[in-house]
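Recap from last week: sequence in, structure out.
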Amino acid sequence: MSSTTPRTRWGRAALWLRFYVGRSVALDRETVRLHRWSPRDRAAFLASKTAALPTIQAGRAADVRAGHVVFRATSAVDLGTFQSCLLDVHDEVVVAGLLDGVAEPVVVDVGANVGQFAAAVRTFVPTARIVSVEPDPDTHAKLAHNLERMGRARSHQVAVGERREVLTLHRHHVSVMATLRPGEVEDYDPALTIDVDVVPIDELTADLEQIDLLKIDVEGFEVEALRGARKTLQRTRYLLIEIGLGREASGANLEALALVREITPAARIVRFGRPLGGVEDPICQDVLIDLGH
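Predicted structure tokens:
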């Protein structure tokens, strides 16, 4: 029997829900300001989101339209993270012009969840080629459904790390919080754990001559992911990596950034994204790095 109490098990989940659901109106206000997205498309997305909410709240999946992209959300967190990704991709990728001038930019999405980031990229960059990586079989099934609708996309149902092996994935009721990091699973239900295959990113991207944007969001497993991506980083233009903002994560964050610099000496940080979570207790933050290629 698990000694984890419902209170601790749902503590971080409640924080995510407060941010993504409680801030829904704030996210809508931020969506209105996306000047690189036409007013018509912004209004259509907000109308689609509003129409989808009752269905999602009733426990059923709903489609949300963002321009030509149709994203299927099965929970309020799916919908909130998709809208948040739209904001982040607009500010960190589109406005910054990272993919400008590339006919079919290649975007590798490691820690793809159900495809929120990939769908956001496609909303603004319709010609992007997507490679997504997600280890949880249930989550991957939802990802595959969203990618199939987009076309020119493929996915791998594996985790990433330094070497091929099998590790335990600690799943959570909020799927974006699944992790391979044993030291950070105190709030996780042992009954939800499963074993998953781990493959280096270098193997997953071996057929790609150049990667324009590599996004890594692996819930505390960043250092191991980067150790298995040495060759990949050497032919990648930009890295977007999520780092934890808790005190216990600071050492790993420094190690991850130092490792990026070791592999690609010309790397430089060009932008920090907005922190996610409560103002007084932020959870994580994106770091955009120009790898100098």
